[in-house]
Amino acid sequence: MKKRFTEEQIIGILKEAEAGLKVTELCRKHGISDATYYNWKAKFGGMTVSDV
């Protein structure tokens, strides 16, 4: 199954939230659910692109 977002893109999306964008706006902008965002945050939170 092809993934829609690469790990680098996911980390970039998480960085947008850290920069102050509201989670609901961020999810709407990228077409993801709140649950997906929080799953990504649990898995990739605190990582940088170089960690991937």
Strands, count:
0
Radius of gyration from the alpha-carbon trace, in angstroms: 10 Å
Oligomer: single chain
Please give the largest β-sheet.
none
Helical content class: 55-70%
Q: What characteristic shape results from the CA principal axes?
A: globular
Low-confidence stretches: none
> CA-to-CA gap between the ends?
20 Å
The average pLDDT score comes to: 92
List the helices and strands and how they pair.
Layout: H1 7-18, H2 23-30, H3 34-44
Helix pairs in contact: 1-3
Provide structural commentary.
With 52 residues, the protein is mainly alpha-helical. It has one domain (7-43). 60% of the residues lie in helices and 0% in strands. The chain has three helices and no strands. It has helices at residues 7-18, 23-30, 34-44. The chain is globular. The model has no long low-confidence stretch (mean pLDDT 92).
Task: Produce a short descriptive summary.
It contains three helices and no strands. With 52 residues, the chain is an all-alpha fold.
Defining traits:
mainly alpha; 0% strand; globular; transposase activity; Transposase_8
